[in-house]
Amino acid sequence: MKKHHIAVLGLALTFTATAGDHAVRSNNSGINERDRSNQTLTADDQNQSKGDVELAAKIRRAVVAQSDLSVDGHNIKIIAMNNAVTLRGPVKDKTERAAIEKLVRSAAGTATVDNQLEIK
């Protein structure tokens, strides 16, 4: 009986995400440092009152249902506190930023909206 040896070679592949001809940086160190400063709202600040949780959930459903938003647009941070909503995170462009704000203002009803969305 013959024995066959099979050698398996591991290949390491490195991918770089690109936008047009420019590499996309994934280093969020500056943003992360800012968020640790306690001067900006983060998801940990989300109020757990029934009204605020329901408001945040209603807005999240409206954002997720909007099929023409980018992945970043769908993943914005929505923080509801005391009938006020803060939007944070990166979005594709100023058109998407405006579309999300309009959508959120409609879903938020009487709640105030602070749009802190950043254009990538």
Number of helices: 4
Unreliable parts = 8-24
* Classification by helices and strands: alpha+beta
Distance between the termini: 63 Å
Compute the CA-based radius of gyration.
Answer: 21 Å
Shape: globular
Largest sheet: 3 strands, mixed
Helix content: 25-40%
Q: What is the element string, with H for helices and E for strands?
A: EEHHHEEHE
What share of residues are in beta strands?
15-25%
Give a count of the beta strands, DSSP E runs of length 2 or more: 5
Spatial ordering of strands, largest sheet: 3-4-5
User: Mean of the pLDDT scores?
Assistant: 79
What is the subunit organization of this protein? Answer: single chain
Textual characterization of the structure:
- This protein is an alpha+beta fold and 120 residues long.
- It is built from four helices and five strands.
- The protein has helices at 29-35, 50-65, 71-74, 94-108, and strands at 18-19, 22-23, 77-81, 84-91, 112-119.
- The strands form two sheets. Strands 3-4-5 form a three-stranded mixed β-sheet. Strands 1-2 form a two-stranded antiparallel sheet.
- A hairpin with a 2-residue loop joins strand 3 (77-81) and strand 4 (84-91).
- Helix 2 packs across helix 4.
- The longest helix is centred in the middle third of the chain and has 16 residues, at 50-65.
- It is globular.
- Residues 8-24 have low confidence and may be disordered.
